[in-house]
Amino acid sequence: MPDISQRARDLGTENAFVVLAEVNALARQGKDIISFCIGQPDFPAPDNVQAAAIKAIQSGKHGYTPSAGIDELRAAAATYMAGMRGGLPIRPEDVVVGAGAKPFIAYAILSTTDYGAGHEVIYPNPGFPIYESQILANGAKPVPIHLHEARDFAFDPAELERLITPKTRLLILNYPQNPTGGLLSRQDLEAIAAILRKHPQVWIYADEIYSRLCYAGEFFSIAQLPGMYQRTIISDGASKTWAMTGWRIGFTANPALAPVFTRWITNTDSCASQISQWAALEAVTGPQDAAAKMRASFLERRDLIVGLLNKVPGVTCRNPGGAFYVWPNVTEACKMIGVTDSEEFRKRLLNEAGVAILADIHFGSRVPGEGQHVRFSYAASKQAIEQGVARMVEFIKKNTRRVA
Length: 404
Hints:
Radius of gyration: 21 Å
Structural class: alpha/beta
Number of helices: 14
Strand order of the largest sheet: 2-8-7-6-5-3-4
CATH superfamily of the largest domain: Type I PLP-dependent aspartate aminotransferase-like (Major domain)
Largest sheet: 7 strands, mixed
Number of strands: 12
Shape: globular
Oligomer: single chain
CATH topology of the largest domain: Aspartate Aminotransferase, domain 2
Order of helices and strands: HHEHHEHEHEHEHEEEHHHEHHEEEH
Strand content: 5-15%
Distance between the termini: 59 Å
């Protein structure tokens, strides 16, 4: 049997799907599992979006589209993204439509770094695991910047200044953030922009897929700050706002890199699904009632799960500013039941209590001095949240070690 490449052997993954496989295996055995491990809305796509997809199928829109996407969606996405970001001068030709937002992580790294040249990419830790995976796979050097609980899971701009070197080519920012739900405030972004103005070789990848799920005031993008627009790759999409994860539609904007991203798509996917593109056009331009209701529901669930988790023995939980994740600190709970770390806690909670969550190590190396954390996705019903946290309480109480 021929060997596979070292690159393929080293390729990372998204552990939410790994844990989901564990959950499904237990469910097939008849075990009752409440799952908080997958980050996707638990709503159907809006009715008008579904109708637009059916219309596209029935009207014969089955073939290839231009690699950058249909003109109608590029224009609509440009208007939408500009409107969300203070009227930035985003033109249709600056927008590229992809098969989800995720491929643009790789395209951004491929377009701003050279393989084996020692170019560095700074990315948030904890963070979406595909950042580090794609940095390594594409021959760049990953440089994590730590998010701190005391800063509501933002990083210290002074740490960014220390990490930037002449080899730095890309800074990945994600706000609202996966896995913590944390935000970068306008003040944070202004401090980051001031540092980046000293380093003109550094591009910014602004992963703003959760921009419509921001609960702490109006969303603000680093691209809105002086000197940042031209060097910022703005990444957004249909998955989270309109519950269209499986439809695979993302849109990214940058005036210089749009033609480059288009060539990457030509080399990989050819184009995003035409049917999904027409559905996304309706999502962006049609009524926003369903998206608003989903956001309101997520906000209610956030308040519910944060309140419940802060009553769990040995657990503290910050109030996240956006997305649909919480990142509770379980350091004391681990000590109480005698487990070594959050991953052992996660495994036992799944197998003994039937509650599926993710551990901090699924999102990068643990931040020194920050303790143990787990991630709940509260894209789940209120009943599931109440029952899941109740099971967690019972699990901790049952297993708490008694001091003689």
